[in-house]
Design brief:
binds beta-D-glucopyranose; Rossmann fold
C-alpha cells in the first residue's frame, strides 16, 4: 500500500465506523425497491467477473458534482460529503451546476482534467453524461452515481441512493390511511404530480405511489377532475414537472384549480413527489383560499426541507418522506474508503437499477416518514435540525 493510500484508508476509519449503524439498519430493510421486481437482496458485493474498477486505487482527490444550490437538500448533501472526505485527508472539488446540464458536463470535464481519482455525481439529466464519463473512464476515474442513476453508459461503477420506490409507496400508503380508503366510499378528488422527466428517480417515486393508489382509482374511490391521472406508471412523465421547479408546480396547480374546481368542488388530496413541488402547490392552495385545519387537502412531499417542515407544523403539508442525507454521504465515503483499501465495495442491490447498458451495483438506504407529531422526535432528535430552526 502506498503512503497516500495508507493515509486515506486510515482517515476513513472514522467514516467507516460512522456508517456501521447504517449498514446494520439496511440489512433489516423490508419492502420492494423496484416497480417490477420483488424484495431487495441482502447486503452483498459486486460480482467479481464484472468490470470491477481498479480497487486499491491510489485515491487522493475526489470531484463532487451536485445539481443545484436552489434546493436545500443538495447544499446539505454537498457540504456533508465534502467535510467527510476532507476529514479523511482527501482533496475535494465541490461544484454546483445551477440545474444546467452543459454546466455540469463542463464541471465534470474540468475535474477530470484536474486529475481527480473519483467522481461523485448527482446528475441533472441522467442521460446526458455518456461522453464525459467515457473521458473519465479513459483516465481511470472511478464514477459513483449519487442519489440519481446515470443512464446509457457503462462508465458508472456504483450507485448510492435511497430506496426511491419505497419513497413513493410511503406517500401512497399515507394517502390510503388518511382517507381510510379501504372503508370509505369516496369519491375523493386526487390531483397527482410527478417529478422531473429527466431524473431517473422520478419514475420510481411515481411508480411506488401509483402502485398503491391505482386500485382505489380503478374502484372509483379516487377521482381526478383535471383528468391528469396517468393511465399507467409508464405515462408518469405526462404530469412531470421539469427541473422539479416550485413555480411550475404552483402554476400547474393554479391552472387545475381554476379550470376544474371553479364551481365550488374541493381538492381532497394532492400527491406531490417531493418538497419543492409541495411548496408551490401549497402556495396555489393558499391563493385559492384553502384553510389549514379546515379544507386543506392532504399533501405529500419528500426531503423534509426546512420550509416544508415549517409548513407541516402549520398544517399546510401533511407529511414528508425524509432521507437523511448524512447517511448517503457516509455511504459514499465508505465506498471510497473501500476502493482505497482495495476491499470489495459493499452494495445491497444488484438488480433494480438497470441504466440501459448495465445493472449498476447499488446501495439503497431507508427513507422515513415524518408528520407533524414526529417532527421533533425524528428531525430534532437526530439533530438534522435544531429546535430553533423549526421554531420549537
Ligand atoms: C431527489 C429528491 C429531490 C429531487 C429534486 C431527486 O432526484 O432524490 O430528493 O427532491 O431530486 O431535487
Amino acid at each position: 500500500m502506498s503512503s497516500t493510500l495508507k493515509k486515506v484508508a486510515a482517515g476513513f476509519a472514522t467514516a467507516a465506523l460512522l456508517v456501521g449503524g447504517v449498514a446494520a439498519c439496511s440489512s433489516e430493510r423490508g419492502g420492494t425497491t423496484d416497480p417490477t421486481t420483488s424484495a431487495p437482496e441482502e447486503t452483498t458485493s459486486a460480482p467479481d467477473e464484472t468490470e470491477e474498477p481498479a480497487t486499491g486505487a491510489d485515491i487522493t482527490s475526489v470531484g463532487i458534482a451536485m445539481p443545484t444550490k436552489e434546493l436545500e437538500r443538495w447544499n446539505r448533501d454537498g457540504a456533508h460529503l465534502e467535510s467527510l472526505l476532507k476529514d479523511a485527508g482527501l482533496e475535494t472539488s465541490l461544484q454546483y451546476a445551477e440545474n444546467k446540464v452543459d454546466m455540469q458536463i463542463t464541471q465534470l470535464q474540468n475535474m477530470i482534467n484536474d486529475g481527480v481519482d473519483v467522481l461523485v455525481v448527482a446528475s441533472i439529466d441522467g442521460t446526458a453524461l455518456g461522453p464525459v464519463l467515457q473521458t473519465a473512464a479513459d483516465n481511470d476515474v472511478i464514477v459513483i452515481a449519487y442519489d440519481r442513476l446515470i443512464n446509457g453508459t457503462e462508465n458508472v461503477d456504483y450507485y448510492a441512493t435511497f430506496d426511491n420506490y419505497r419513497v413513493g409507496t410511503f406517500q401512497g400508503e399515507y394517502i390510503v390511511e388518511q382517507l381510510d380508503l379501504d372503508n370509505a366510499e369516496g369519491p375523493f378528488n386526487l390531483e397527482p404530480f410527478a417529478g422531473s422527466p429527466d431524473d431517473n428517480n422520478a419514475k420510481f417515486f411515481f411508480a411506488g405511489a401509483w402502485d398503491v393508489l391505482k386500485p382505489y382509482i380503478d374502484e372509483g374511490k379516487l377521482v381526478t377532475p383535471s383528468g391528469k391521472a396517468p393511465a399507467s406508471n409508464d405515462d408518469w412523465a405526462s404530469i412531470g414537472i421539469q427541473g422539479w421547479k416550485s413555480e411550475t408546480a404552483q402554476s400547474e396547480m393554479q391552472n387545475r384549480l381554476n379550470s376544474f374546481y371553479a364551481g365550488g368542488e374541493k381538492v381532497d388530496v394532492v400527491l406531490s413527489p417531493n418538497d419543492s413541488l409541495a411548496l408551490g402547490i401549497a402556495q396555489a392552495l393558499d391563493a385559492a383560499g384553502y384553510t389549514p385545519g379546515e379544507d386543506w387537502p392532504i399533501l405529500t412531499g419528500q426531503d423534509a426541507d426546512q420550509a416544508n417542515v415549517l409548513n407541516i407544523l402549520a398544517g399546510k403539508q401533511s407529511m414528508s418522506v425524509w432521507k437523511d442525507t448524512r447517511q448517503l454521504g457516509d455511504r459514499v465515503a465508505t465506498m471510497i474508503s473501500q476502493l482505497a483499501a482495495g476491499e470489495e465495495v459493499e452494495v445491497n442491490d444488484t438488480e433494480t437499477y438497470d441504466n440501459g447498458v448495465k445493472v449498476v451495483p447499488s446501495y439503497l438506504l431507508d427513507p422515513t416518514v415524518v408528520v407533524a407529531d414526529t417532527v421533533e422526535e425524528i428531525l430534532v432528535g437526530s439533530e438534522f435540525y435544531s429546535a430553533e430552526d423549526l421554531g420549537l
